[in-house]
């Protein structure tokens, strides 16, 4: 079983959901992003989702776009991102899953990326713009190197596509809570619980819900029906809005702890 | 003309939108249902006589097609080839783009959607979309890079007059690719009510195939007009290539005519060697951008590199996947034309024929000028070249005036 599967089993035994926290590699700097991810785990984040920045992130809202631009302007490269996985996984022991758009993977070389991600201790890859129909090379590479595959499903996915997509996933399935891009919202989605229950009909894999979750209360709501709560923009904003790194890390720890509390108090 | 304008031809792409190793769908899952819906509506429309009749009538009565094929004798004498200009610049809204926009707007109505969004670089596609939205009573939002809203202020005003909302895009390089990102984000969020009216033969399946089929009337017309005028097919067909819809539009009917050479001229900007260009095939490499696999301007890590061209409409770091395939298969030849060459051709057409071309189309003219001597040598006679004059130059008067230093100080 993958390390991320262990995290899900442990959380399930504790009667709670897994908290997944996202951070772009190299934001605001390589060192800064490592410090941020370590701080998140120390404050209660179970799984790190490290986004490899991409110049044209069409599934991301303004916060992640801005963070990605800062990281890329700082010169972060795919090889740096893989080193960050290695460092964070070794320092925290927490599962580190990567997320990125398809072109950076294709240019690195699909099999080479899978090999190097596995060697760095990464658990798998979330692919926001890769659907299973186009994923032949990735299916083979992830098999060869023992990596998890997380494709996205959406409220607009048909039942047949939910089943097909879940069948191609390993580790967990990513359910996008709303029709839209990443970014914290004031209300949690009404579509998400429906989507998750439709998924339960077709798969036994754990289901993570992301998009729009930013507070402990929202995390508790989502934890009421999902196996993992995925938070990105709200955490990244802690660093974007802070006057300096120390203040940013403090805010990040505070929010991480609040979210960790939230997933331990699922609304049922 | 009749229903030929929209008749799908050829076996490519396959049912998943692949042209060999190019094309396909690299999109968030949230868009798949909408792309499937669009694909079904488009395939149904292509065999629906009512749809085809309505499309043909609009093209004829509203857009003013078939456009003329005009023999440019004074230009011909200057460049050593018999040049036939496909006058898409005379279409309503001033470019070939109206053909695609009318086709997609009709489909939008058929899908029961009430809102269209579009990206635009030079503003020509935005104006065409705003025009169709006015005609079909659709809400219209156009995303345009902030840099482009400044260099194409006239087209921004035109879109607003037509009732469209123009949203300046301030992310990334603030040009066409960023406008496309922003339109995709809007579409992901509003896909139930909204059709994304992509302006070129790029993007995820079925857009490259569908847009090609809506504009392929250009080549169908030009082929027959050339036969009528000269008694034979042309030796070569020349078009500019940004995303590549005007080029595919004129190429497609000629693809089976293997004696007809097809030339696509990419924007060489300040020269491909300088790195400041928009020549994705000549100076790029295979990758994924905006939902499709094609040639892309990118660095080693797959990050998109900013494109440069004096022509806002060609200033895009990708190209439609069918062009990538036509290049790989050798059926079409793609060559760069730099800013100075394009502007020299712009001036030449103004002075010899009294026609002010779009700077985009000036790349095709410059390309024809470049290949003429070689073609003449190969054939041992004056070659016949059909050039797609894809748009008129009114929108470029400011840019061209500044380039030639002929504007009075304000």
Automatic annotation (TrEMBL), chain A:
One of the record's GO cellular component terms: cytosol
Keywords linked to the UniProt accession: Amino-acid biosynthesis, Aromatic amino acid biosynthesis, Lyase, Tryptophan biosynthesis
EC number: 4.2.1.20
Record InterPro entries: Aldolase_TIM (IPR013785), RibuloseP-bd_barrel (IPR011060), Trp_synthase_suA (IPR002028)
Pathway: Amino-acid biosynthesis; L-tryptophan biosynthesis; L-tryptophan from chorismate: step 5/5
Keyword check for Amino-acid biosynthesis: yes
Broad class of enzyme this protein falls into: lyase
Reaction catalyzed: (1S,2R)-1-C-(indol-3-yl)glycerol 3-phosphate + L-serine = D-glyceraldehyde 3-phosphate + L-tryptophan + H2O
Active site (catalytic residues): 49, 60
GO MF term set: tryptophan synthase activity
Family matches, as NCBIfam families: trpA
Assembly description: Tetramer of two alpha and two beta chains.
PANTHER family (UniProt xref): TRYPTOPHAN SYNTHASE ALPHA CHAIN, CHLOROPLASTIC, TRYPTOPHAN SYNTHASE, ALPHA CHAIN
Role noted for this protein: The alpha subunit is responsible for the aldol cleavage of indoleglycerol phosphate to indole and glyceraldehyde 3-phosphate.
Family note: Belongs to the TrpA family.
Entry protein name: Tryptophan synthase alpha chain
GN (gene name): trpA
Automatic annotation (TrEMBL), chain B:
Cofactor(s) the record lists: pyridoxal 5'-phosphate
Residues carrying N6-(pyridoxal phosphate)lysine: 97
InterPro entries: Trp_synth_beta, Trp_synth_beta/beta-like, TrpB-like_PALP, TrpB-like_PALP_sf
GO cellular component terms, A-Z: cytoplasm
Catalyzed chemical reaction(s): (1S,2R)-1-C-(indol-3-yl)glycerol 3-phosphate + L-serine = D-glyceraldehyde 3-phosphate + L-tryptophan + H2O
Pfam families in UniProt: PALP (PF00291)
GO molecular function, one term: tryptophan synthase activity
Membrane-spanning parts: none
Claim: Heme is one of the keywords in the record: no
Regions annotated as coiled coil: none
Record keyword Lyase present: yes
CDD domains, per the entry: Trp-synth_B
EC number(s) given by UniProt: 4.2.1.20
Subunit-structure text: Tetramer of two alpha and two beta chains.
Family indicated by similarity: Belongs to the TrpB family.
HAMAP family: Trp_synth_beta (MF_00133)
Protein name (record): Tryptophan synthase beta chain
Protein source organism: Micromonospora chaiyaphumensis
